[in-house]
Specification:
This protein is an alpha/beta fold. The chain has five helices and five strands. Helix 1 (2-30) packs parallel to helix 5.
Length: 159
Amino acid sequence: MKMHNVFREMYNMNEFFMKKALEEAQKAFEKDEVPVGAVIVRNGEIIAAAHNSRELSKDATAHAEMLAIREACEALGGWRLLDCDMYVTLEPCSMCSGAILQARIERLYIGTMDPKGGAAGSILNLFENYHFNHKTEVIKGILEAECSQILKDFFKRKR
């Protein structure tokens, strides 16, 4: 019974942090950016939060994950994000997946998968198919319906 409560707490915590990533995605949506949000958590505290801003910044690397990693590195004073988890609403691309591995992020929580550009299992899997010196655990499907819906709403509006 006690173990069941621990799992429920962890699930609720994962939902809480993914909702924070969804809040970031909503900010992107409101700026007419592809609505992807990311937060980085260490010891149960959000140390970085970001959303896509490629259009506004005119920067191809301004993905939510990249911006969150930069912010977290600044907050911690170094490039190794040991003991950190990332929550992201959409499966990361190869650039972001590589950065997640390079930053030594412990766990990656993904809202919804990206069948057109994902590098955590959809198109390729940088987290399982290669032998990097760091392993990031990947957990998929946290608030999947909500993470998928914001993207559907955005692209429906664009058409």
